[in-house]
Amino acid sequence: MRSISVTLSVLKVIYFFSTVLQFQLYRSMCRAAGQYVPNDPRKPLHKCDIYRQPAAGNLLKQLMAKGASQPWQEVLQETLGEGRLDGSALREYFAPLEEWLRQEALRTNEYVGWNYDGDYCKRSIETAGLQIFGGYYNAAAGPLVSLVLLGLCSWLSSSLI
């Protein structure tokens, strides 16, 4: 049963990376098609339409033609000019929605978030033997977690080649 949960977790990590990469590719294809121009309100990323755009198709063909002959980082660098995963395209795509939600929350006086009950949370976290930084639990600050994440990322990048 444990190996199934580990496998499912790895699949979730791969799915996460593929989503980030999808938006990164979309942004590059939109640029190639002239459908998106950074900082131009007339051509925002979220309104890009690459349907029947030869430049976008050619970029995708060029990317896919490499197959598994090179590491994916090199293929991205050669094709898109970006050699690593970058989540900024995802943030940029959803920026109008994020701004609308922020404005709507202000307009309707909605409270976004939750109240922090420091005593209860602190007791729970200390009982579990976890560390607290600044009153909040921050697992990423633990050195062991950082090493595990580094190892996982290295393994994933080498296995996706």
Lay out the secondary structure.
Elements: H1 2-33, H2 54-65, H3 72-80, H4 88-107, H5 118-127, E1 132-133, E2 136-137, H6 143-159
What does this structure look like?
The chain is an all-alpha fold. It folds into two domains: 2-100, no CATH class; 114-161, no CATH class. Helix content is 62%, strand content 2%. It has six helices and two strands. The protein has helices at residues 2-33, 54-65, 72-80, 88-107, 118-127, 143-159; strands at residues 132-133, 136-137. A hairpin with a 2-residue loop joins strand 1 and strand 2 (136-137). The model is unreliable at 132-142 (pLDDT under 50).
Biggest β-sheet: strands ordered side by side in the sheet? 1-2
Counting DSSP H or I runs of 4 or more residues, the number of helices is: 6
Q: What's the story with the biggest beta sheet?
A: 2 strands, antiparallel
Q: What gyration radius follows from the Cα positions, in whole Å? A: 21 Å
Unreliable stretches, pLDDT < 50, 5 or more residues? 132-142
**What structural class do helix, strand and pairing data support?**
mainly alpha
Quote the average pLDDT.
80
Q: In percent terms, what proportion of residues is strand? A: under 5%
**Helical amount among residues, as a percent range?**
55-70%
The strand count comes to 2
Instruction: Encode the helix/strand succession as letters.
Output: HHHHHEEH
**Basic shape:** flat
Distance between the termini: 28 Å
GO molecular function, one term: metallopeptidase activity
Family: Belongs to the peptidase M2 family.
Protein name: Angiotensin-converting enzyme
Disulfide bonds: 30-48
